Amino acid sequence: MTFEVLDALVAKARNAAAGEDPTAALRVVLQDSFAEQSALAEAVEAQPEDEVLLFEDETCSIWTCRFDPAVVVPPHEHLMNAHIAVYRGCEVEVLFHRKDIGEADGLRHAKNRAVNAGEVLTLGPDVVHAVTAEGTAPCLAIHIYQGPLSKVERALFDWDTGREVAFTMDKFNAMLTPRGELSDLGL
Question: HEC profile for the chain?
């Protein structure tokens, strides 16, 4: 049953993403998925890696995500709507604003937003965020992007300067940071 519940969610999300109002329809699919919250948490936990692509086409990308509370993933953008459903734990979105024209290049920390188990959050295409988990256990979630995330040229942002760098998995992994080093972000 572990992987059947993921297959069912993927099928529903694919249909929703191809519909007339994909943003609203994907949110409904994720809200409805909490009827299988325990099974989905187990399925995400059973994945071999922290982030696993389940499906991608031109309408959506569907990922399982597991975030460690001791590590913060670097600031990055998606350039498309992102829908986050948390099945176990608490995912913390560290949200940034791009600095205004005339300011030095980079980012300003805006706020942190906790997404608890049983909640769905939608981030718009212009959002820049870093991610970690709250507590002592990993956060388990599904992220659905409204487009082919792996085919989009997007950016990571340097922790120290806030400057854009091209997104690659090598750079992403090199920029993973222990949570204790980021106390200035309210973590």
Answer: CHHHHHHHHHHHHHHHHCCCCHHHHHHHHHHHHHHHHHHHHHHHHCCCCCEEEEEECCCCEEEEEEECCCEEEEEEECCCCEEEEEEECEEEEEEEEECCCCCCCCEEEEEEEEEECCCEEEECCCCEEEEEEECCCCEEEEEEECCCHHHCCCEEECCCCCCEEECCHHHHHHCCEEHHHHHHHCC
Which residues are CB-neighbours of 169 under 8 A, at least 6 positions away? Answer: none
Each domain of the chain, given as residue ranges in start order, spans 2-185
Give the global pTM: 0.93
The residues with which 51 forms a beta bridge, in sequence order, are 65
CATH class held by domain 2-185: mainly beta
The first and second tokens of residue 164, run together, are: 């854009």
Which band of pLDDT confidence, cut at 50, 70 and 90, is reported for residue 101?
A: low
d(CA 14, CA 98) in angstroms, rounded, equals 32
Residues in the chain: 187
Interval 11-26: pLDDT, tens: 999 999 999 999 999 9
d(CA 86, CA 118): 6
Q: Which residue has the tokens 């929703």?
A: 16
Contact of 107 with 98, CB cutoff 8 Å: yes
